[in-house]
Design a protein that fits this description.
The structure is a homodimer. Chain A has 20 helices and ten strands. Chain A is an alpha+beta fold. The longest helix of chain A is centred in the middle third of the chain and has 43 residues. Chains A, B: It is found in: Membrane.
C-alpha cells in the first residue's frame, strides 16, 4: 500500500512529513487500506489527493502514518481554504492558483511560500473534508455508520479507530523560534510574526494580547507604586488614580482592536472569508435534512436544546453559584475565628495563622474552579450544540460567570457589606498572589517537569530501535505522540481576564495590584512560551481575525469596574467628610459621576475607530475592486447580449 | 435630436416616461445636445443608453425632458444596481439577466416585473453614473469643470444648469394606493408592500415603523388610563408601571429589528450589497487621487475636517445648548411671574395666564429647533464630508443633541432641581400636546393647503395650452415640477424620537402621555400619507435594510429613561416613607435597582436574536450556496490543471 503513492505532479521527489495520524492498535487491515486509499485517491474519485507513508517502528503493532502533500497540491489547497497572502504590490489578496504569479515571493520552486503551519492547516482541512460517498459504514466496523457527506475523519475519531491527528514539529524551526522568543535575556517584543508562522494566528494573537496587555498595565503600575511607598491616603489622589484607571482601561481595550486589526491584516486573516461551519464532532441527533445545506446530517431540535439550557444548565449554574457563596461564608467564619484566636493568644504563630484562611480559600477557589470547569464542559456538551463556535460561547459564558463570582464575591462582600477596606486590601493581595503562583505552577512548571521525565524514558526506549527510516524522525514522532495536547487559549485568556478584574475592580483600594500583574505577566510570557515549545504537541494553526468573545468579556469587566470604583470612592471617609450634612447629596453626586464616567466610556469607545485609517482604506480598496469586477462582469453580459 | 432615440431592442414601441429632467431656462443648445446625446449613447461609448424625449410646452422656453428606458435596458440596470428579487423557489436572489428565467413572475413581455419605483431608481442610478470621459468642462460652460470619471449630472446640478431631476407620479397607481392607504375609514394595517413598490423601501420602512410603534404604545396607553381616571398615586403601582415601561420599551425595540428583517428580506433589500459611495454633491476639494479607487477626484484632508468639527462645530453646538438653557431659565422666571400674578389677582383670566408661559415656551422651542436646524445643516455642509452617509450622521447627531436638550431640559430641571412633580406633569402635558399640534399643522396641513391653491392656479394655466402630446402628461409634469420636494424621513423620525422621549423619560409621572402619543400617531399616519401622496413631488426610491442610526437613537433614549424613572421613583414621597431612617439606604437601593434594570435591558437585547430563525436560515443558505459556488470554481481550476 505504501508504495502506491499518488502524485499531483510526479516530479515531486521528496516526501516531507507534515501531519501524523495515529490509528488504534489492532485496527483491521481492510479499514487501513480503505482509509489510506481515500487519502491518496484523486479528487475526482472523492479522495484528498495527499501523500501517505507508514511509520515503521520496532514492534510494528503501532499504526502510525505520516501525511504530506506535493507543493502543487498545497497551493490548490491554499486556494480552497481561502488563504490570504501578500501580493507584489503589497496588498493582501485571497490566493488563487491562476493568479499565483502576482504574489510576493512566489516561485514554482519556492517551497517556503506557504509556512509549515499553513501547510498543516491545509492538510487538516483536506482530511476533515474527506467525505463518505456511498459507504454505509466504515469497512470492518459495521457499528461505525456513515452517510453520504459525513466527514470520514470525524467518524473515525468518534468511533475510536483514529486515536489522534497532530502536526509534526519542525525541530530546526522550533530551535530558531525558541532562541528568538525566550532563548536570550532581552527587553523587547516577542517575534509575533515568527510565532504566527509556526503556531498559527490564534496562538500568536494570544501572545500579542498578553504582551500588549502587560505594556498597557505598566503606566497603572508606575502610578500605583508611590501610593504604596508613601502610603498616600488622600481622597483626591485616589479619585485621580481611579479615574485614570477607568479611562485608561477603555482606551487600552479600544486601541487593542486597532493593533489587532493591523496584525491580522498583515497575516491575512482579517480578509479571510468565514468558512461554512460543519457540525462539531460531539454533535448527536437523528439523521435528517439540514435546511441550510439541503444535505443529510444529524438534526437536533433547537427547542429541546433550549429546554436543556434553561431547565437544566441554568439551574445547575445557579446552584453552583449558591454553593460558591456558601463556601465564601464559611471562609468568613474561619477568618473571624483566626482573628479571635490571634487576639487571645498573640504570638508569631497566631500572626501567621491570620493568613491561613485566605490562603486556604484561594486554594479552594482554584479547586472549585477546576471541578466546575469539568461540569460545565460536560453540561455544554450535553446541550448538544451543532456548531463548535456555539459550544465554545456557551462554555465560556458558564465558566466566566462562575469564575467571576468565585474569585470576586468575597471581595464584593468585604467591600460593600462589611465596609472593611483594610481587610479588602489584604484579601485582594492574598487572592491575587496565591492564584498567580498556583497558575504558574499548575500550568507550565509541573507539565514541563513531567515531560522531561517522560522524555528521558522515551529516549532509552527509542535508542534500541533499528529501522530503515531516518532515526530521528521515528524518535520524534514517538516522542511527540505522547506529549500533552494543548486545548486552546481558553485557560490563558481566563487567567488574564481574572487578573484584569483584580487590577481594575478595586484599583482605588489597592494600586499595587497592577505591579503584581505586570511582574506575573512577564514571567507568564516566558512560561507560556516554554509550554508551547516544550510541553505540548504542536497544535494545528487556526486562522482568526480577533480575540472574539474575550474582547466583550474584558469590556464588560471594565464597565463593572466603573461602578465598583465609584462606590468605593463614595464610601471612603474622606469623601464622606466632604458632605457632612447630607448623605443624600453624597450618593447623588457619586451616582452622577458614575453615569458621567459610563457615558464618557461609551462615547470614547464609539469615537475611537476600530481600525486604523490606512487599514480602512486598504479594506475599502479591496471592496471597491470586487464591486468593479462585478460591474465589469455585468458589462460583459450586456455586451454579449446587445453586441 | 429628439428623433435620434437609441433602442436596445428596437422593437420597443411605447415610450413610458419615468423621470423628468428640468434644465435651467436659456441653457445653451450645445449643452443640451451634448447632454442628451450622452444619455442616449451606447454603454460602449460611455453613454447611459436610455431614452429621452423633450416635453413640448406652450411658450417653449422651458427645457424639460422625459427619460425612459427599454424593458431590456431596465433589466440590465437592475443587475447593475444589484436588485434582489424573489425566485421561483421562493428564495430571494440578486437579479442577473442570464438567470432571469428563474425569477418569479418573470416573462419577457411582463413589464411589471420591476416596480415603477425600481425602474426610476435604476434610471437615477444610471444617470448619476454617467461620467465625464475626456471633457475638460461642460460644453458651453467653461466655468463648469469636468475631469475623467466625474459624474456629469452632479456637475450639472452644482453648476445650476440642471434644475432638478424627479420621478413622475403614476396617476393610476397613486389613486389605487391612496384608496387602499387612507381612502376608506378602516382599522387595520397599512398596505406596506404597495407603499414600498410605489415610494421605495426607506419611506415604506418609516410608515412601517410608525405603525409598529403606535401598536407598541397601545399597551402602555391602556395601562396608563386607569392611573389618570382613578388618580392612583400608590407607590407600588407607579413602580410597576415604570418597570413595565422600561422592559416593554426594550422588547419593542428588539422586536422591531426582527420585524424590520422580515420586511426587508421580503423586499430584497436585506440581501442587497452596499454600493460604493461616491462623494456627495456638495463636497469640495482640490483635485487629487482617491487612495481607494485610484481615480482623480476632489480630495479634502481629514485633519482639516476634524479641526472644523472640533474647533468650530463643537463650540457652536455647545453655545447653542447654553443659549437654550438660558431661554429655559427665562421661561421659569415667566412661570414664577404668572404664578405670582395668579395669586394676587385670582380670576378666570389669571387662571388661563398660568398656561401662557408653557405655551410660549413650547412655541419658542419649536422656533429654536427650526433655526438651529438650518445652522446645523450649514455647519455640517461646511465641514465638507466626502460621503452623504457621513454628512447625514453628523447632521443627525447635532440635531438630536440640541433637540433633546431643548425639549427635555426644562423637564429635567423641574424634576431634579425643583423637585416639583405637579409642575412636571403639567409642563409635560403642555409641551407634548403643543408640539404635536404644531407639528401636524406645519408638516402637512399647511403645505396641503398651499398645494391646493397652487394646483387651481396651475390648472387654469395649463388648460389654455395646445400641444401634440398627451394633454394630461404636460399638465402632470407642469404640476409636479412645482410641488415641494420631500427631503427624506429625517423630520418624521425626529418627531417620533421626541415623542418617545415624552412617553418614556417621565412615564411614571404622567402615564397619560402614551395615550396622547397613540392618538397623535393615528392621525400622523394619515397626515403623513396625505403629505406623500398629495403635497410633495414623488421622491426617488432608496433601497435600505433598516432604520439605521435611529435604532441607536431610540435605544439610547430607552437607556436614559431607565435612569430618569429610577430617580423619579426614588424621589417620590411614598418610597421615601419606606426608608424613614436612612436616606443613604434609599439611594443605594435605588442605584442597585437601576443597575439591575440596566443589566436586564442589556441581557435582553443580547438574548433576543435580531433576525427570526427562518430568516437566519435563509441567509445562511445563501451564504452556503455562494461558498459552494466558490469551491466549485476551485474544483474546476484544479481539474483544468491536473486533468
Amino acid at each position: 500500500m505504501a508504495e502506491s503513492w499518488t502524485f499531483l505532479d510526479t516530479s515531486e521527489p521528496n516526501f516531507r512529513p507534515l501531519v501524523v495520524i495515529e490509528l488504534a492498535k489492532g485496527t483491521k487491515e481492510e479499514t487501513i487500506a480503505w482509509f489510506t486509499k481515500r487519502i491518496v485517491d484523486k479528487k475526482g474519485n472523492g479522495g484528498a489527493q495527499l501523500l501517505v507513508k507508514p511509520l515503521v517502528t520496532e514492534n510494528g503493532d503501532e499504526n502510525i502514518y505520516l501525511v504530506g502533500a506535493s507543493h502543487l497540491r498545497l497551493l490548490l489547497g491554499a486556494e480552497a481554504v481561502g488563504l490570504v497572502k501578500e501580493c507584489n504590490d503589497n496588498s493582501m489578496r485571497a490566493f488563487t492558483y491562476s493568479s499565483r504569479k502576482t504574489f510576493k515571493d512566489f516561485a514554482d520552486d519556492n517551497h517556503d511560500f506557504l509556512t509549515m503551519a499553513e501547510c498543516q492547516y491545509i492538510i487538516k482541512h483536506e482530511l476533515e473534508n474527506l467525505r463518505a460517498k456511498d459507504e454505509k459504514m466504515i469497512p470492518g466496523y459495521p457499528q461505525a455508520k456513515l452517510y453520504p457527506g459525513k466527514s470520514i475523519v470525524r467518524r473515525l475519531l468518534t468511533s475510536g479507530i483514529l486515536v489522534q491527528i497532530f502536526p509534526l514539529h519542525d525541530r530546526e524551526e522550533l530551535k530558531k523560534l525558541r532562541h528568538s522568543w525566550y532563548g536570550r535575556v532581552k527587553v523587547g517584543y516577542q517575534p509575533l510574526d515568527e510565532i504566527r508562522s509556526y503556531f498559527g494566528e490564534t496562538i500568536a494573537l494570544y501572545f500579542g494580547f498578553l504582551e500588549y496587555f502587560t505594556f498597557a498595565l505598566v503606566p497603572m503600575a508606575v502610578i500605583g507604586i508611590p501610593y504604596y511607598v508613601f502610603a498616600w491616603e488622600d481622597y483626591d489622589k485616589y479619585v485621580m488614580f481611579a479615574t485614570f484607571n477607568l479611562l485608561w482601561s477603555t482606551v487600552i481595550l479600544e486601541v487593542w482592536k486597532r493593533i489587532c486589526a493591523i496584525m491580522t491584516y498583515r497575516w491575512g486573516t482579517l480578509l479571510m472569508k468565514r468558512q461554512f461551519e460543519e457540525p462539531r464532532p460531539g454533535f448527536r441527533g437523528v439523521l435528517g435534512v439540514n435546511p441550510v445545506t439541503g444535505r443529510e446530517e444529524p438534526v437536533y431540535s433547537s427547542i429541546r436544546r433550549q429546554i436543556r439550557i434553561y431547565l437544566v444548565s441554568l439551574p445547575f449554574v445557579c446552584l453552583c453559584l449558591y454553593f460558591s457563596l456558601y463556601v465564601m461564608m464559611i471562609y468568613f467564619d474561619l477568618e473571624q475565628w483566626a482573628l479571635d484566636y490571634h487576639e487571645e493568644n498573640e504570638s508569631n504563630l497566631s500572626n501567621l495563622m491570620l493568613y491561613v484562611p485566605s490562603i486556604i480559600y484561594a486554594v479552594v477557589i482554584e479547586i472549585m474552579n477546576r471541578i466546575y470547569r469539568y461540569a460545565a464542559e460536560f453540561l455544554t456538551s450535553w446541550e448538544n450544540h451543532r456548531l463548535e463556535s456555539s459550544y465554545q460561547n456557551h462554555l465560556i459564558l458558564k465558566v466566566l460567570v462562575f469564575n467571576f463570582l468565585n474569585c470576586f464575591a468575597s471581595l464584593f462582600y468585604i467591600a460593600f457589606v462589611l465596609f472593611d477596606m483594610k481587610l479588602l486590601r489584604q484579601s485582594l493581595a492574598t487572592l491575587l498572589i496565591t492564584s498567580q503562583i498556583l497558575n504558574q505552577f499548575a500550568e507550565s512548571l509541573l507539565p514541563y517537569w513531567l515531560q522531561k521525565r517522560h522524555k528521558k524514558r522515551m529516549k532509552k526506549r527509542v535508542c534500541s530501535l533499528k529501522t530503515d527510516m531516518d532515526m530521528s524522525l521515528v524518535e520524534q514522532v514517538n516522542l511527540e505522540k505522547e506529549m500533552g495536547t494543548y486545548f486552546g487559549t481558553f485557560d490563558d485568556y481566563l487567567e488574564l481576564f481574572l487578573q484584569f478584574g483584580y487590577v481594575s475592580l478595586f484599583s482605588c483600594v489597592y494600586p499595587l495590584a497592577a505591579v503584581f500583574a505586570v511582574l506575573n505577566n512577564i514571567t507568564e510570557i516566558y512560561s507560556d512560551a516554554l509550554k508551547m515549545c516544550r510541553v505540548y504537541k504542536r497544535p494545528f494553526a487556526e486562522p482568526t481575525a480577533n480575540i472574539g468573545v474575550w474582547q466583550l468579556a474584558f469590556e464588560t469587566m471594565s464597565v463593572i469596574s466603573v461602578v465598583t470604583n465609584c462606590m468605593l470612592i463614595g464610601m471612603s471617609p474622606q469623601v464622606n467628610a466632604l458632605f457632612p450634612d447630607s448623605k443624600m447629596d453624597l450618593v447623588l453626586t457619586v451616582a452622577l459621576v458614575e453615569h458621567l464616567l459610563l457615558a464618557i466610556k461609551f462615547i470614547m469607545a464609539f469615537v475611537i475607530p476600530d481600525k486604523p485609517r490606512d487599514i480602512q482604506i486598504k479594506l475599502a480598496k479591496l471592496e471597491f475592486e470586487s464591486l468593479e469586477a462585478l460591474k465589469q462582469q455585468v458589462r460583459v453580459t450586456v455586451k454579449s447580449i446587445v453586441g
